[in-house]
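Morning, I've got a small favour to ask if you have a moment. Here's the protein in full, and shout if anything looks odd to you:
***
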Amino acid sequence: MFQVGDEVVYPPYGAGYVIAIEEKTIQDEKEKFYVIELLLNELNVTLPFNLVNKRNIRSVLSFRDLSDVFTNLIHDKTEVSLFPLHQKLKKYENILIKGEMTPIAKVIQALVRKKVKSSLNSTERELYNKYFNMVVSEIMISKKILTEEAETLLYKMCKDE
């Protein structure tokens, strides 16, 4: 259970804050809802308590934990094949929806590396933006920093070195 003020990640939309817990009556039954303010989407989402696990809502990771995930990938020289992307798009969308950081980090790292070496096609750019914004918003909350600083940190964490 989350409380008002908790920092959460709502895959695939990104990180935000629980700003309220509301009770609503639907078909004569009372139900509780979290109201989550998403950081980068400038959007509030209302989510029933009973869907939290199904939607993979989780607490924001500490920056140390986020950094460790990326550091481990660099040392393992993990590679993610982006080709043929159109055949793997559903798989990559599902990774984002599950919200588990290690698989997300593998994909964003591969996309950042490809973007640095060459250019991304339109499908890759769309995927890149979704992954990038989700991770950037989590970094923003975990480090209490602005978007540009979080973007710079993410690029550094994705480097080959």
Notes: The chain has a mean pLDDT of 89. The domain at 61-158 is CATH 1.20.58.1290 (Methane Monooxygenase Hydroxylase; Chain G, domain 1).
